[in-house]
């Protein structure tokens, strides 16, 4: 199974939302990481055939997905960043409705199984209007999984969820990721660390890095430092390095620094994490939540 | 799918609000009519029975229609003469009613009916046919005039078997029927707004991503949504046809309802071979065509504007303009402000009305006008029925709107994108 992005670009008038995006994906979990406006949702909309790329194409096992049409949608599952549901429908009715749209014959057993998977069995007869944000998200992933997709796309799946729901959701994504291409867009670094095998860093519509998590962290070796400083304000005022974390101590503060060069005499190298990667590439502190 | 779409529509707040307003509006018109019904009727039911008994009795005694007409007329003249010489007509016992005054009322109405059914209507038809025949045989006439007159002969040279019965109740029924014209204007708007909400619901609820990435998303959703709205339109049409029939039966009685529509003087020029019940059904079918057009209008605008308010506003303005034009032109008789019983025809409006009835589907909100006279217009050298042409226009628009709506449903981005790419090629920005 291969999903190939071939020089995909998308312009909105003069604004280039996506520029020459090329990569090849096979089974596994891919995280699209980037700040707001990086082009993550545009890429997903292109993949979902909701918008047409200005240039390039996307191939699934060698066939253009636009030409595949319904054949591609048959093996495609998508959960958008934000979506509404019909409040008067129950969870089971909502799944039946989408099962019909996805042309699934005899959907009842699939629906029961999915409600179990997303832990909504007890609420199957409850109206969706009364669901919490997390429950709606879980129902959203159940909708995306109804047709047992080979390509599963999740746009900001954990946005707006409380920590408990986020953990539950991450586990859910890990559970369902077997034997599929799972792509999820996020600007929340901890999600990537927990579930992704591969990371694509996007900024201004362009790929900054496209690699696996281990390699990405390896590339940061020798660039992440920790140092004890007396004057935090003085450290913050320096432009030559980026501070990813500050912990106050009795004598001043312990700061975590991302820098190509040793920032202080007393600084020592430490193990990089994805937050450091985010800071290094995007020059802003990664979001823990939104 | 269809089941869920219908369920969703029927449970929507907008539907409930519109249904409440519809019931209240219809109820208001009906209650208001029947509140004043006893004051507005020409005769009470008992007198109508007496008139019909008199006519039946006269009919049984005469072998041919002319003798019958003369017998009724003589009876009327006789009672009139008696009444003229009697100083106390209320206390003088009558032959047909309780007193001479009742006799007068009965024979006057009977005579009026007999005159219309036995003389006025057949003479008018004979006149139409004989004049048309002269033109058809005139070689100096152009092809259109000959064809038109041939059509007149075909349409009016048909014998109508009227029963000799009292039709005064029909006047009230016609008043009620026409008072519903604005109701159907409202109903068209209501269904259009409901359809706009339905076709924009993915956008309104941010469901585009979930719905349009489904295998059969667009086609299946559009068809089931369209069918659901059509089912609602069918349901409304059936309900209001039934209501119209029940009120017609209540006001006129079964005997009159199954009479040819031409028995009513308002429809003396009607060339369709239909009875009053068929007329009620046809009127509602024409209104149904208008409702379907309103649904397809919502379907075609929704992918372009995508926002329920923009769709409702733009489509609502289109419908409003079309209805306003119809209402303005329809009222071509301008009544004198000081005397509401006298009026004159505004020829400019009348001509406008004759033109718009050819192509403007909103004219189906008051369909009776299509049945009142020989209603053909000139198209090249051929006389073409206004109702048939307007119905064809409506069906054509419906088909184009539905097809375009179907092709564009859920694909607004592509439409905008094509504009964008075109703009880029031309060096302009969108």
Describe the structure.
The complex is a heterodimer of chains A (290) and B (430). With 290 residues, chain A is of the alpha/beta class. Chain A folds into 2 domains: 3-218, Rossmann fold (3-Layer(aba) Sandwich), CATH 3.40.50; 224-282, no CATH class. Chain A is 32% helix and 30% strand. In chain A, a hairpin with a 2-residue loop joins strand 12 and strand 13 (252-258). In chain A, helix 4 (91-101) crosses helix 5 (108-117) and helix 6 packs parallel to helix 7. Chain A is globular and about 70 Å long. The model of chain A has no long low-confidence stretch (mean pLDDT 85). Chain B is mainly alpha-helical and 430 residues long. Chain B has 2 domains: 2-39 and 166-321 and 389-421, no CATH class; 44-156, no CATH class. Helices cover 72% and strands 3% of the residues of chain B. In chain B, the strands form 2 sheets. Chain B has a two-stranded antiparallel ribbon with strand order 1-2. In chain B, strands 3-4 form a two-stranded antiparallel sheet. In chain B, helix 6 (100-136) runs antiparallel to helix 7 and helix 12 (217-252) runs antiparallel to helix 14. The longest helix of chain B has 37 residues, at 100-136. Classes of the chains: A alpha/beta (290), B mainly alpha (430). Chains A and B meet through helix 3, strand 6, helix 4 and helix 6 of A and helix 1, helix 11, helix 12 and helix 18 of B.
């Amino acid at each position: 199974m291969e999903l190939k992005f071939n020089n995909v670009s998308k312009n909105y008038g003069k604004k280039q939302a996506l520029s020459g995006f090329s990569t090849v994906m096979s089974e596994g979990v891919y995280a699209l990481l980037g700040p707001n406006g990086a082009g993550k949702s545009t890429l997903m909309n292109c993949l979902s055939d909701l918008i047409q790329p200005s240039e390039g194409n996307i191939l699934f096992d060698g066939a253009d997905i636009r030409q595949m049409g319904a054949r591609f949608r048959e093996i495609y599952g998508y959960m958008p960043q934000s979506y509404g549901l019909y409040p008067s429908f129950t969870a089971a009715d909502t799944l039946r409705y989408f099962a019909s749209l996805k042309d699934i014959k005899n959907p009842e057993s699939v629906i029961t199984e999915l409600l179990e998977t997303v832990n909504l069995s007890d609420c199957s007869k409850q109206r969706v209007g009364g669901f919490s944000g997390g429950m709606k998200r879980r129902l959203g992933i159940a909708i995306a999984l109804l047709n047992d997709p080979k390509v599963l796309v999740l746009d900001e799946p954990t946005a707006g969820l409380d920590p408990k729901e986020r953990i539950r959701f991450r586990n859910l994504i890990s559970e369902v990721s077997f034997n599929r291409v799972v792509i999820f867009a996020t600007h929340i670094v901890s999600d990537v660390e927990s579930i992704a095998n591969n990371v694509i860093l996007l900024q201004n519509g362009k790929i900054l890095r496209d690699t696996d998590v281990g390699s990405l962290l390896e590339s940061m070796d020798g660039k992440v430092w920790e140092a004890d400083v007396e004057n935090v304000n003085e450290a913050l005022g320096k432009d030559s390095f980026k501070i990813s974390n500050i912990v106050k101590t009795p004598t001043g503060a312990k700061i975590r620094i991302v820098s190509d060069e040793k920032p202080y005499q007393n600084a020592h190298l430490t193990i990089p994490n994805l937050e450091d990667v985010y800071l290094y590439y995007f020059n802003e502190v990664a979001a823990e939540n939104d | 799918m269809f089941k869920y779409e219908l369920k969703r529509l029927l449970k929507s707040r907008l539907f409930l609000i519109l249904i409440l307003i519809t019931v209240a509006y219809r109820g208001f018109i009906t209650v208001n009519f029947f509140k004043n019904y006893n004051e507005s009727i020409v005769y009470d039911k008992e007198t109508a029975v007496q008139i019909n008994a008199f006519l039946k009795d006269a009919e049984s005694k005469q072998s041919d229609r002319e003798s019958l007409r003369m017998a009724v007329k003589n009876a009327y003249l006789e009672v009139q003469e008696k009444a003229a010489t009697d100083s106390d007509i209320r206390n003088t016992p009558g032959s047909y009613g309780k007193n001479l005054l009742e006799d007068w009322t009965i024979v006057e109405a009977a005579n009026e009916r007999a005159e219309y059914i036995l003389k006025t209507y057949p003479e008018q038809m004979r006149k139409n046919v004989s004049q048309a025949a002269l033109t058809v045989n005139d070689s100096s006439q152009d092809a259109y005039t000959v064809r038109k007159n041939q059509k007149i002969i075909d349409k009016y040279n048909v014998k109508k078997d009227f029963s000799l019965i009292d039709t005064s109740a029909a006047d009230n029924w016609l008043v009620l029927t026409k008072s519903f014209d604005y109701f159907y204007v409202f109903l068209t708007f209501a269904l259009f707004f409901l359809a706009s909400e339905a076709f924009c619901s993915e956008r309104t609820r941010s469901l585009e991503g979930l719905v349009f990435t489904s295998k059969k998303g667009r086609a299946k959703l559009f068809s089931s949504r369209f069918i659901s709205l059509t089912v609602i339109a069918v349901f409304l049409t059936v309900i209001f046809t039934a209501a119209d029939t029940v009120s017609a039966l209540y006001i006129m009685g079964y005997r009159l309802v199954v009479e040819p529509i031409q028995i009513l003087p308002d429809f003396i020029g009607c060339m369709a071979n239909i009875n009053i019940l068929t007329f009620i059904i046809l009127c509602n079918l024409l209104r149904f065509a208008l409702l379907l057009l309103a649904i397809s209008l919502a379907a075609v605008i929704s992918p372009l504007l995508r926002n329920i308010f923009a769709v409702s506003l733009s489509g609502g303005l289109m419908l409003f303009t079309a209805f306003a034009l119809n209402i303005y032109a329809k009222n071509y008789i301008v009544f004198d402000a000081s005397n509401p019983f006298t009026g004159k025809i505004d020829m400019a409006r009348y001509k406008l009305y004759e033109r718009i009835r050819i192509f403007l589907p909103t004219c189906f909100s008051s369909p009776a006008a299509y049945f009142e006279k020989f209603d053909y217009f000139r198209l090249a050298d051929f006389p073409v029925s206004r109702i048939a042409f307007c119905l064809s226009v409506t069906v054509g628009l419906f088909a184009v709107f539905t097809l375009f709506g179907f092709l564009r449903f859920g694909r607004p981005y592509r439409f905008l994108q094509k504009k964008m790419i075109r703009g880029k090629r031309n060096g302009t920005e969108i």
